[in-house]
Amino acid sequence: MRRLNPVDLSLYFILGPAHCAGREPAWLAAEAAAGGASLVQLRDKSSGTAAMIEEARALKRALAGTGVPLIVNDRVDVALAAAADGVHLGREDMAAADARRLIGPDRLLGVTVKTRAEAQAVDPEIVDYASVGGVFETRSKRNPEPPIGLDGLADRIALIRARAPGLPISAIAGIDAANAGSVIAAGADGIALVGAIAGADDPRAAARRLAALVADATRRRAPFPEQRKEIKA
Predict the structure, then answer these.
(1) What pLDDT score was predicted for residue 205?
(2) Distances from the Cα of 185 to the Cα of 63, 83, 86, 98, 226, angstroms
(3) What predicted TM-score, i.e. pTM, was given to this entire model?
């Protein structure tokens, strides 16, 4: 089996110009990292290619020395041009195998998973992590399909772990301090979010609180997957 590129999904902060309420994305990324964010993703659905490359480079500079990797959503070309640490692919983006061929073996590659079929198709020979969701309703992204909820999250995680036991998994969509513990209890290794940090008056303090919540919930969680021995076919 391919050796996975190591990644800490405990607090996965997603941001872009649309999420920052007029504040600089680079400043938000630095504040989040200082508060405990373990991974940062640039998600920009509206800017042109040149602007996105500059955004990614600014985030890389802001994160320099923190040890926090930068992931670019969707855009393999932007990730390569900006020397980002990896790429995240949504459900309608290019195939993971194609992205892996383009970025090479050493950059991180993550995928979004929502359906049971997608969970069963996750290939640890290609990807380094999976983000499962949307778990709850979210305002940061249009989701025409209903959220999968905690039961759906636990089900998708079990399916992924049956195929790829060591693959890191985050939960995404509508996650905040009120429900972070519940998604960790459902089996996720971490939380991926936008507004709970980007919309906070003090993003560093918000990140610190969320990181502590995830750490506490992880300590209290029963071992996984022993707690769920049955996986529905």
Answers:
(1) 98
(2) 30, 35, 28, 34, 13
(3) 0.92
